[in-house]
Amino acid sequence: MPERDPTDSTRSDLTAYAEVTFDGPVFLGSHCVLGFPKEETIRRHRAEGIAISELTKPVRIGAGCIIGNHVIIHEGANIGADSVIEDQTRIGYDTRLGARTRITYGAFVCDRVSIGDDARIGGFVCDAAHIGERATVMGALVHEYTSPHVDWWSPAEEAPTIEAEAVIGYHATIIGDVRVGQQAYVAAGAIVTRNVPAEHVVTGINEHTALRAWKGKRLRALRDHWLRRNKSHDDEPGR
């Protein structure tokens, strides 16, 4: 079966609120929404009577992307080449996805998020979070939410930073302005409220174990892979 032409404006199952640029061939599933306007845009449209299409920021989708069914991509989003956005996922406004990134398992990516190349996202990612290349997030990145008494848009709370190749396991929660270091592994169900050094494993509530000292069987293959590769990089001439 041939790929659907994403530029076909006669598709009744595609809703585009903004200008959408496709950098090359893209496979686009059914009932997708592209360029959905942010709340500020909708309010300005109502107040000033300007057409939504004139207010929304354009969306850019890289060549080779596969976008599943019932996907919502908000205005200003930029999707890197060869990325896969699976069914029933959401990409917030002004979010940047690196090349070959996978958004899966009904992930909810909020606004102004930055995600590096080759990342895998299957959880909840709060506004303005930063996720490095080859990182995995299957849990939740959330703000502290310490000011529920003020207007929804007033607090400018800091978001978590997940560095390159770090892993956030299922139902793990990273809260507030914390940094999870490169090649750190946050186990499923763990809670993190303070910085995690690079090459550490987190279990429970902020319980840190250096990767080299980790004795568990389940992470042994990953631990050995990272340590061998890091050693080979350190042994390169000139380092």
In short:
This protein is of the alpha/beta class. The protein has a single domain, classed as Hexapeptide repeat proteins (UDP N-Acetylglucosamine Acyltransferase, domain 1, 3 Solenoid), CATH 2.160.10.10. It has helices at 39-48, 52-55, 220-234, and strands spanning 15-16, 20-22, 27-28, 33-36, 59-61, 66-67, 72-74, 78-79, 84-85, 90-91, 96-97, 102-103, 108-109, 114-115, 120-121, 124-125, 130-131, 136-137, 140-142, 161-162, 167-168, 173-175, 179-180, 185-186, 191-192, 200-203, 207-210.
Question: Which range does the strand content fall in?
Answer: 25-35%
> What percentage of residues falls in helices of 4 or more residues?
10-25%
- Give the C-level CATH assignment: Mainly Beta
Strand segment count: 27
Summed over residues and divided by their number, the pLDDT gives a mean of 92
Individual helix count: 3
Strand count, sense and barrel status of the largest sheet are: 10 strands, mixed
Under CATH, the topology can be stated as UDP N-Acetylglucosamine Acyltransferase, domain 1
Low-confidence stretches: none
Rg (C-alpha, Å): 20 Å
